[in-house]
Amino acid sequence: MTTWTREDLDQLGAAEELALAPLRRDGTQSKPVTIWVVRVGDELCVRSVNGRTSRWFRGTQARHNGNISAGEVEKEVIFIDADPGLNDAIDAAYRAKYRRYQARIVDSIVSPAARSATIRLLPRCR
User: Fold this and answer.
1) Cα angle: 85, vertex 14, 83; to 5 degrees
2) Which residue among 28, 62, 110, 117 is the one 20 to 30 A from 78 at the CA level?
3) Considering the entire predicted model, what is its pTM?
């Protein structure tokens, strides 16, 4: 399995937001959504604040492939459900990175619904 380069981890992990676009079943790219991203060790993770029913999240489950971009970095990715055992570390990463936002906003990304919709992003090999 492919891993992130140190440079990609640093740039994407530090990004305030990502544009994330799952591929549709027919292989075309869906409209990008803006989403928060956190880095936990050598992993990049995102969550759906609306849980597993949100449209973009369902798109990640349909094909498990898509694209992300942040600043100058654009990558093709694979979407993999995160190990639930990482949820506490991911919560801590969200709380630390986005602490300047109102508590109710950050609380929504560490809620049980959001935790159930946690995805690891992996670079896609061609």
Assistant:
1) 15
2) 110
3) 0.92
**Distance between first and last Cα of the chain:** 12
The DSSP-derived string for 96-121 is HHTTTS-HHHHHHHTSHHHHTTEEEE
| Residues in the chain where the model's pLDDT stays below 50 | none
Return the structure tokens found at 94.
């969200």
Report how many domains make up the chain.
1
Contact assessment for residue 13 and residue 37, using Cβ atoms and an 8 Å cutoff? yes
Range of the domain at 68: 6-123
Residue-wise pLDDT for 22-58, tens only, equals: 999 888 999 999 999 999 999 999 999 999 999 999 9
